[in-house]
Amino acid sequence: MVDDFSKRRVKSGIPGFDDLIGGGFPEESTVLITGSTGTGKTTFVAQYIYKGAEEHGEPGVLVTLEERAKDIRREMAQFGWNFKKYEKEGLIAIVDGVSAISGIPSEERFVLEDRINVDNFLRYIYRVVKAINAKRLAIDSIPSIAFRLQNEGDIRGVLLKLNTILLEMGVTTLLTTEAPDPKAGRISRYGIEEYISRGVVILDLQEKNIELKRYLLIRKMRGTKHSMRKYPFEITDRGVVVYPSGEIY
């Protein structure tokens, strides 16, 4: 039996972050990135996929359910990230989960036509992962998968099924969700997401000296030792940067 602590690490691509989790995410784990609007969740997971391709040659799939693929590429270009380059090389696949459902024509290679049917959604993502032999997967975001479900039991069932499929894929996955009120202990939209994930990272905005500052907290990370402190981070011209020393340089 392999000790979780001896598992291969998957580098996050986030400067300063891997120092807090023993060198990277435990391989084949599912990690929840949660926070309120504007905390940087989409940038965090896009950086994970992009840097995996750029720095380690690891194929990754980015499933975008809130923005069109071309909008993601344009927004991430501000950090100097050329997603198209690695898409052409077969190292990145962006699954557009917005265009078809919104009735907007799409010229994307990977277009999700039915995220309303969760089984079809999961089957399609599975096929894309296998098509490029992906080692990394990011889904942004969980509420966009379950947005038509009202019953808590149905939502729980969908998330459990998602977790099972992710384990079968053998990828290291980041999922995003909304945190309605972290200060009141609500760290996810449904209160279920954190239980299906082996890791939970909370991104937060706090007022300090009459301006908002970004902070990160690793709430849970099974299979590795990790810090339980809050650390400042910024979204810079090179993406998300975490400051393990607690000081912003």
Automatic annotation (TrEMBL):
- InterPro entries given for it? KaiC-like_dom, KaiC_dom, P-loop_NTPase
Name assigned to this protein: ATPase
Record domain KaiC: where: 8-249
Entry's Pfam families? ATPase
Q: Which PROSITE patterns match?
A: KAIC
Q: Where are the transmembrane segments?
A: none
This protein's source sits in the domain of life called Archaea
What keywords does the record list, in alphabetical order?
ATP-binding, Nucleotide-binding
For this protein, the record's Gene3D superfamilies field holds:
P-loop containing nucleotide triphosphate hydrolases
Gene Ontology MF term list: ATP binding
